[in-house]
Design brief:
Largest sheet: 2 strands, antiparallel
CATH class of the largest domain: Mainly Alpha
Strand content: under 5%
Number of strands: 2
Order of helices and strands: HHHEEHHHHHH
Low-confidence stretches: 1-9, 228-246
CATH architecture of the largest domain: Up-down Bundle
Strand order of the largest sheet: 1-2
Radius of gyration: 21 Å
Mean pLDDT: 84
Helix content: 55-70%
């Protein structure tokens, strides 16, 4: 009888709180994965993670389901949850789709970019040039990811942003560290500067072509240098390769 008389807003509030907690837990686990604390292939220890995050195992399991939908973990019956491993073949497929999204973002943004957005992107390319001059590979890698994310975000297209970021996160599972070589980053910095120049012209097609070529070049470098010892493909262990880093 008391259940029938319960305030319906209590149930709604509980649902909202539970959903919010699940998302917070999912975001926390995601950060651990993308930061490399939870490596590809690692089994997720529910007890340890629940204790670390200060939550019960219920919200954690719900968070695992969200992360599985995002492609960051996989769950096996009677075995538990594991951080996904992305093989070279799959990474190449993801990169191919991402290249198309980069081109779409460039085409859209060129037609609507604002002076303030252009200034933001130019400032980023200046920081890339500075990182290239000092051979700051890690700094350049962070700026590179942020630059492309900014272009996508500036389009204002929510579907594009959501799909793009999901793919980028999955690629992180394949290649947690950047594979830039000091000798190559000045060239990449120049490519980014040229992309901003094209955005400033408002020529969507040329901008799309430049971003597509830029992304396809990254995919080719990944295919060329991704199969180094320790990186598997869907068809088996990677073959030995040189120590060159893309």
């Amino acid at each position: 009888m008391s259940a029938l008389l319960a305030d319906p807003t209590d149930t709604a509030l509980t649902l909202v709180q539970r959903t919010s907690l699940t998302r917070l837990v999912a975001e926390s686990v995601e950060k651990l994965i993308l930061a490399g604390e939870l490596a590809p292939g690692a089994k997720l220890n529910e007890v340890a993670l629940a204790e670390r995050l200060g939550v019960s195992r219920g919200p954690l399991r719900e968070a695992f389901r969200l992360l599985e939908e995002c492609g960051l973990i996989r769950q096996e019956k009677n075995r538990g949850a594991f951080v996904r491993e992305i093989a070279l073949d799959e990474a190449a497929d993801i990169y191919e789709v991402r290249a198309g999204l980069d081109a779409t973002a460039g085409r859209l943004l060129a037609c609507r970019i604002t002076p303030a957005q252009l200034a933001t992107l130019r400032a980023m390319t200046e920081r890339m040039q500075a990182a290239a001059a000092t051979e700051d590979i890690d700094g350049f890698h962070v700026l590179n990811l942020k630059f492309h994310d900014q272009i996508v975000e500036m389009t204002g297209n929510r579907s594009l942003i959501e799909i793009y970021r999901k793919l980028v996160k999955q690629l992180t599972l394949f290649r947690r560290r950047n594979l830039f070589a000091p000798m190559a980053i000045p060239h990449f910095a120049d490519e980014h500067s040229a992309i901003v120049d094209l955005l400033a012209t408002g020529d969507g097609e040329r901008c799309a072509q430049a971003l597509l070529a830029h992304a396809q070049g990254g995919r080719q470098r990944m295919l060329r240098d991704g199969a180094y010892p320790g990186v598997a493909t869907a068809h088996g262990p990677a073959a030995p390769n040189s120590q060159h880093r893309a």
